[in-house]
Amino acid sequence: MKIGIIGAGKVGTTLGQYLKLKGMEITGIYSNTLENARDSAEFIGTKCYEKLEELVKVSNTLFLTVPDGAIESVWDCITEFDLNRKIVCHFSGSLSSDVFKSYERTGAKVCSVHPIYAFSNKYSAYEQFHKVRLTLEGEEEAVLAMKGLWEDLGHKVTTLKKEDKAKYHAAMSLASNHVLAVLDTAIRLLKDCGFQEDGAYEALNTLVCENVANGMKCGVVQALTGPVERNDTDTVKKHLEVLNRQDRELYQNLAGRLIEISKIKNPERNYETMEKVIGGNGQE
Ligand SMILES: NC(=O)c1ccc[n+]([C@@H]2O[C@H](COP(=O)([O-])OP(=O)(O)OC[C@H]3O[C@@H](n4cnc5c(N)ncnc54)[C@H](OP(=O)(O)O)[C@@H]3O)[C@@H](O)[C@H]2O)c1
User: Fold this and answer.
1) Does ligand 1 come within 6 angstroms of the Cβ of 129?
2) Distance CA 25, CA 46 (A)
3) Does residue 53 fall inside a structural domain?
4) Which end of the chain, N or C, is less surrounded by CB atoms within 10 Å?
5) CB 254 within 8 A of CB 223
6) Rounded to the nearest whole angstrom, what is the distance from the C-alpha of residue 193 to the centroid of ligand 1?
């Protein structure tokens, strides 16, 4: 496999470096800004291309590691070149391979590849990349080739249906970004109670990390504790009384899910009163 990388950002540079270290052939890198392409090429130990056509010519696999909004225009550019039998992938979690419009006419084999990982630094993320699971979706031959590539390197791979891509990405966002929104709310409430910001983070650190670690290890049903799970309606009523409208709605929405988990954990308990409390602004 001769892999050409288009987009010298966090994902392109990380994958280039990681795959090169694993002995794969990286033909080169092309980017919007020549200087960025040069820096990444130097880091990876590959060639920097000034002309996209030349990189396409020497590669049989193209990684489009550009922002989601640029994938379609880069695809339009490369369809002017000979793509017959080349594998073309993008790395967006939310977009499917549908973005490769009329790919059949080009002879290219196309798919989307999503590494489940936050690439925060383009020069160091490759160090942790061995732990990453990837999801694939798209045309059969391209998916098979990518499955082979990543599984041979020891990665776990899951294949998705095209129509599930948006739901899949919503799940990823909930588990990573939305968790931060909940944390932000907790930090703000602690600051209302007199904590300094760093003190609030420090106070929550062990609680949050151990809770998440426990949930990931034993499953959320097993890990769940707290007033909803204990069916402690008086405490939940007090919480709802002191929250402003926006925070109360967030609390109520999440508590609704907690009741569902609690019913699985404690099938003998009756959560009807709790459901009324949660559903009615703290009033039974
Ligand atoms: N970051 C993550 O944690 C993460 C995780 C999973 C998947 N992804 C996906 O991976 C893809 C890349 O994300 P990223 O975080 O690596 O983005 P990024 O760091 O912003 O890098 C994108 C790179 O693409 C280059 N570029 C933009 N438009 C271009 C064009 N028309 N032609 C050639 N190069 C172009 C940029 O150019 P210059 O720098 O040269 O100006 C930049 O180097 C996205 O689809 C994203 O959804 C990201």
Assistant:
1) no
2) 9
3) yes
4) C
5) no
6) 41
- Asked whether 9 lines ligand 1 (CB < 6 A), one says yes
- The residue behind tokens 């926006």 is 246
Residue 149 lies in a domain: yes
User: What gap in Å lies between CA 28 and CA 61, rounded to an integer?
Assistant: 11
Judge if the beta carbon of residue 36 lies within 6 A of ligand 1.
yes
Strand order across the 157-159 sheet: 25-30, 2-6, 61-64, 87-90, 109-115, 134-138, 157-159
Ligand 1 contact via 93 beta carbon (within 6 Å) = yes
Of all protein residues, the one whose alpha carbon is nearest to atom 29 of ligand 1 is 32
- Boundary residue ending a domain (142, 160, 178): 160
- 110 vs 74, 86, 114, 162, CA distance in Å? 14, 8, 13, 12
Q: How many angstroms separate the alpha carbon of residue 92 from the centre of ligand 1?
A: 9
For residue 249, give its domain range: 224-284
User: Ligand 1 pocket test: which of 32, 43, 48 has the largest number of ligand atoms within 8 Å of its C-beta?
Assistant: 32
When pLDDT is averaged across residues 248-258 and rounded to a whole number, the result is: 97
- Ligand 1 in reach of 280 Cβ (< 6 A): no
For residue 176, pLDDT over 80 is answered with yes
- 182 in any annotated domain: no
Does pTM surpass 0.90?
no
The pLDDT value recorded for residue 282 is 44
Q: Reduced to 3 states, what is the DSSP secondary structure of residue 5?
A: strand
- The pLDDT tens digits for 40-63 are 999 999 999 999 999 999 999 999
112 within 8 A of 92, measured Cβ to Cβ? yes
CA of 7 to the centre of ligand 1 (A): 6
Examine the fold and report which residue of 110, 125, 160 is the final residue of a domain before the chain moves on. 160
Domains: count for the chain: 2
With a 6 Å cutoff on the Cβ, whether 70 touches ligand 1 is yes
* pLDDT tens column, 262-278: 999 999 999 999 999 99
